[in-house]
Design a protein that fits this description.
Tscrpt_reg_HTH_GntR, 2 domains, globular, two-stranded antiparallel sheet, mainly alpha, Four Helix Bundle (Hemerythrin (Met), subunit A), Arc Repressor Mutant, subunit A, GntR_C, transcription, GntR family transcriptional regulator, transcription regulation
């Protein structure tokens, strides 16, 4: 193999210095890098080095290192021949991400149905109703925010902080891959309707039904996303 074939494209200088906010610095760095992966400013296959990112964000290497560790744990960056690089588009990667998320959310739904408080059930149902209203009105950005809040609210109601963090990471991965790698316009009303069905099962304490409905919900979305996947680029070098 020629030396030119082994080269990995370097990421362009795309990150802006971070503003002062109340979030922890590592969270800010994580969000900044994740968002640049999603919008492909950090292209698939590009190297993500601590020194380069720290210089662009005007922070020390420590929060960048911590953010990259989480991004690697989630699956948005992976080891290459010359360090970490942005994960490449792959139908298998999307499939695996949704399978993991489905398993985790099935468990969180089951535990949420068993352990939810009155306040938990009301919050989950309120988010489900609001998401359906946003979908019917065609307010896509609002729906996506409510969709994320709905799934995380179920995880929080599970009463298991470790499971909740795992669900959050899996949701971040599927959303990031879907937004970056798949351009598909679809009817979001069925999502909102399924949210309401899931919320109802959790509210009545039906653990098995809640788990099953969450699994079916994510399986349907996975099928739609994979059907729209454009191809199979090569892996990260």
């Amino acid at each position: 193999m020629s030396s030119s074939a082994q080269q990995v494209p370097s990421a362009p200088a795309v990150l802006e210095p971070l503003p002062a906010r109340s979030d922890t610095l590592t969270d800010l760095v994580f969000t900044a890098i994740r968002d640049r992966i999603v919008d492909a400013s950090l292209p698939p296959g590009s190297r993500v080095g601590e020194a380069m990112l720290a210089a662009q964000l005007q922070v020390s290497k420590t929060p960048v290192r911590e953010a990259l560790l989480r991004l690697r744990h989630i699956g948005l960056v992976e080891p290459g021949r010359t360090g970490l690089c942005v994960v490449a588009p792959s139908a298998a990667t999307i499939q695996n991400a949704f399978e993991l998320r489905s398993a985790l959310e099935s468990a969180s739904g089951r535990h949420a149905a068993d352990r939810r408080t009155i306040e938990d059930a009301a919050r989950i149902r309120g988010l489900a109703t609001a998401s359906l209203a946003a979908a019917r009105a065609g307010r896509v950005t609002e729906f996506l925010d409510l969709d994320l809040a709905f799934h995380l609210a179920i995880a929080e109601a599970s009463g298991n902080p470790t499971l909740c963090r795992a669900v959050e990471d899996s949701v971040v991965l599927t959303i990031a891959l879907r937004q970056r790698d798949v351009r598909v316009e679809r009817d979001l009303v069925p999502d909102g309707q399924e949210h309401e069905e899931i919320a109802a099962e959790i509210a009545r304490g039906a653990a098995d039904a809640a788990a099953e409905r969450l699994t079916d919900h994510l399986c349907r979305i996975r099928t739609l996303v994979l059907a729209a996947f454009p191809g199979e680029p090569g892996p990260c070098s």
